Amino acid sequence: MLTSDRMRIVMAASEAVPFSKTGGLADVSTALAKALDALGHDVTIIIPDYRELRLKQQEKLPTVADTGMRFSLSMNGRYVNGGVNWTMLPDTSVKVLMISQPYYFDRPQLYMEAGEGYRDSCERYCFFSRAVLEVCQQMVLRPDIIHCNDWQTGLIPALLHAHHARRPGFENAASVMTLHNMAYQGRFWHLDMHLTAMEWRYFNMRQMEMFGDLNLLKTGIAFADQVTTVSPTYAKEICSPEGGEGLDSLLTYRNGDLVGILNGIDDTVWDPSADPHLPAHYSTAAIKPGKAECKAALQKRVGLPDRPNVPLFGMVSRMSDQKGLDLLADCADRLLFHDIQMVFLGTGDPHFENFLQHLAEHNPGKVAAVIGFDDGLAHQIEAGVDSFLMPSRFEPCGLNQMYSLRYGTLPVVRLVGGLADSVVDVNPATIQDNTATGFVFEEYSSTALAEAVERAVEVYRQPDVWHQLMINGMSIDWSWHTSAMRYADVYRQALERRHDRANDGRE
């Protein structure tokens, strides 16, 4: 067990900003590491080195160097060599180790190309998970905690339990498994079991098997000392058949070790008073002038008329059913009957990309759609729109609603997951006590979404009320500090659980 409060933490993830990103996992991996570092812990991030992608943006990244470490793992009937590059997160003491293996990771994208997932995904991330433990041992990291994230690292808690628990350097190591999105589980053909280096006896319905397949997310849940997810409401939802995606029984069994911790945001990156992407800055002391300038600049950039008194709605999202694009498609005509503007940014399902492009082409003064991703434009949308749309089918945590509130932008959200935990609905009582921050609807239907947007349009016509709602959202502390302290508590619980298990002979 630890003799002090300072912990050695290894954060294992398949992506982390600024090196690689497809979604919120990358933001969370880095922001949590920085917050834990600020609390005084020794933090190391381990990620794959997607060298092809990294070199495309190397001018924006800290310098990456070769550690000189080499290792070899038996994979799929052959030995595969790997190396380790390293750097530091700027302005922190956080070390970043990158697992280098050109065949697995030097590819145009992280997980898929042309809409198809890479066929060897199981092999790639089994190699990565095994490499994490190899690096911990060879580089003498002596972790107290190995914090694993999503299915790509789900094998690590199993390997730690079955193979590494008694090895030098792992005597005190405990594992924590964070579930960012239950929809992605890493399910593969059962004969991929040999890639895991785990004995076949673990391929059973309690640990690694699911309906005849190997399930790497289930593996992580089954073996981790503690399990977390990214909001308290989502922690409850995933213990139900509706939210558990087939793993609700296991999660219910592990409910005593399951904790929901709402993500924070990196408030050094998302700060309207200093954001370098914005044409004007603002704070709660003076919101209107800066936000009005940001709105006008956004309208100009995306080709919408400069109409300062018309409510502008925005959406930055992966374009999929999960994000409620189907609801938006069903009620678009009803919404555009009102005098509003809308701007969209993102990529995803070609069906929804085409829908938004079509909507913009047929409503040139009211709708703009940018297919792709532009980080600067994402910041400008958060600052420039009046209201942000997140009508998600499910949303484990969500970050954009927190970005929106930080930028004085009122979210329209569905009452699920982290959206339920972070947005307070506008109604007479919450307006009176200054807790209201957005417009919340419960039923997953286009009618419910349209009614929520129409409520926002109605309140927008009351500028004094709208201004107070902006102040309410901007006054909330969305930083990672509080969340990081809760994770530190979970780490201590994991260490206690590991210590108890070792003492009663279960290892």
Structure notes:
Pathway: Glycan biosynthesis; glycogen biosynthesis. Belongs to the glycosyltransferase 1 family. Bacterial/plant glycogen synthase subfamily. It is an enzyme of class 2 (transferase). InterPro entries: Glyco_trans_1, GS/SS, Starch_synth_cat_dom. Residues 308-458 form the Glycosyl transferase family domain. By secondary structure, the protein is of the alpha/beta class. The protein folds into two domains: 8-264 and 481-503, Rossmann fold, CATH 3.40.50; 288-474, Glycogen Phosphorylase B (Rossmann fold). Helices cover 38% and strands 19% of the residues. It contains 18 helices and 20 strands. The strands form four sheets. The chain has a nine-stranded mixed sheet, sandwiched between helices. A six-stranded parallel sheet has the order 17-16-15-18-19-20, with helices on both faces. It has a three-stranded antiparallel sheet with strand order 10-12-11. β18, α13 (400-406) and β19 form a beta-alpha-beta unit. The mean pLDDT is 95.
Brief rundown of the structure:
The chain has 507 residues and is α/β, with parallel strands linked by helices. The protein contains 18 helices and 20 strands. Pathway: Glycan biosynthesis; glycogen biosynthesis.
